[in-house]
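User: Teach me something about this protein's shape.
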Amino acid sequence: QVQLVESGGGLVQPGGSLRLSCVPSTTYTGIAAMGWFRQAPGKERELVASISFSGTTNVADSVKGRFTISRDNAKNVVYLHMNSLQPEDTALYYCGTVIPIPQLTSCVREYNYWGQGTQVTVSS
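Assistant: First, the predicted structure itself:
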């Protein structure tokens, strides 16, 4: 069983920036794609960005040019860098992984392990 732990969320003003981090709570040395998703109240969980084990990325159109995803395989951590945040970015952000698939995976149904989420609130 792999558990993921997200951190870095919080309250930020419009136009601000945050960096989310995701690490496994247990030692996992396998290779796997990872992704960031978000879910606002009353809405379905949606892809924000995904990254393959080798670093190929996919970013949702709604955040393209503002958000980037990266990973450090040596440290077993994946990041979501969020710039120019807007109120519509307010949501619970989840980190997920697709063990043992290393290829880029962007479909939420294919992810088999998730974190508990970290809240991002954009408000003045």
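Now, about its shape. The chain has a mean pLDDT of 93. The radius of gyration is 13 Å. If you'd like, I can walk through any region in more detail.
User: That's plenty for now, thanks!
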